[in-house]
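Box 3.1 A note on notation
Throughout this textbook, protein chains are presented in two layers. The first layer is the amino acid sequence; the second is a token string describing backbone geometry. Keep the layers aligned when reading.
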Amino acid sequence: MKEFLLIFRREDSNYAEKMSPEQIQSMLKPWQDWIGGIAAQNKLVTAGNRLESDGKVVKPNNLVTNGPFVEIKEVLGGYTIIKANSLEEATEMSKGCPILQVGGSVEVRAIIPMDN
């Protein structure tokens, strides 16, 4: 079985700041259910984390800029690592991700172990 990185993207980087605590709680339940379903199949490597929208980007010659990627509208919201037999299976598992219900997307990438 291979490991795959699921990268969650969305357009509105501050959407959670606009939500009430009750709305945030109701938003978390589908995520817990989806991640729990993957874990129940013993295919969850790490549940991952949400990422703050602020950050820094380090470029060649030690150039540090505000970021990440301020020139695009879409932001990286978080990630999860799963196990699957193929890219197709990992993609199929990603179709249940709650971020798709709010207009976001899931990028599915195979992880290449460092020893290969």
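The mean pLDDT is 84. The chain has one domain: 2-110.
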